[in-house]
Amino acid sequence: FENFIVGRSNRLAYSAATRAAEEDGAFAPLFIHGTCGLGKTHLLRAAATRFLERRPGSVVRITTAEAFTNEFVQAVRGGSVEPFRRSYRRVDLLCVDDVHFFASKEATQSELLHTLDAVAMDGARILLASDEHPKEIAKLSERLVSRFMSGAVVQIDPPEPELRLRLVKH
Q1: Interatomic CA distance for residues 13 and 106, integer angstroms
Q2: 96: exposed, middle or buried (C-beta count within 10 Å: 0-12, 13-18, 19+)?
């Protein structure tokens, strides 16, 4: 978080990610969206790092939607779905980047939905990031959109002129 330059356009996302990483107690999923290059991945990684700093020994899983999909396909083909599920479902924090990649991947969407439900039921935190708002991701199941929207949905806007100048200086 120390290297993230905060301005008007990203302050809400920064605050939400910080809260997700630092606060104790129940926490609904956080879904950060905005165009490419605005700091979504940075915030996911910063939140995971801070979460581990505050809770040593916690299990944190950071992945991309593409990596999740590839691992799931390999697990199905190799008959190792249960180990795959354990690796994603027995976590304290699950971060998934680029969730727009799940569009049109029905079997993977179903697996992700069950994973999110299992993780949430165990009280773990979920942080998600995408280039698009959940409702704007084409060919995404309504149930998955509902899960994505069950917590905070926060947009990062392109930086305002003042923030651009601070980013260039940094």
Answers
A1: 29
A2: buried
- Rounded Cα–Cα distance for residues 17 and 121 (Å): 21
Give me the mean pLDDT over the 141-165 stretch: 92
Residue where the block lists tokens 């509902």? 146
Residue type for 136, please?
E
- Strands across the sheet with 30-33, in order? 60-64, 93-97, 125-130, 30-33, 152-155
Rounded-to-integer distance, Cα 107 and Cα 115, Å? 12
Q: Give the tens place of pLDDT for each residue, 71-117.
A: 999 999 999 999 999 999 999 999 999 999 999 999 999 999 999 99
- Name the 3-class secondary structure at 19: helix
Nearest Cα to 94, choosing from 54, 122, 73, 74? 122
> What confidence tens digit (pLDDT) does each residue in 36-74 have?
989 999 999 999 999 999 999 999 999 999 999 999 999
Q: What is the mean pLDDT of residues 8-15?
A: 94
Across the strands, what pairs with 32? Answer: 129, 154
Q: How far apart are CA 166 and CA 161, in angstroms?
A: 9
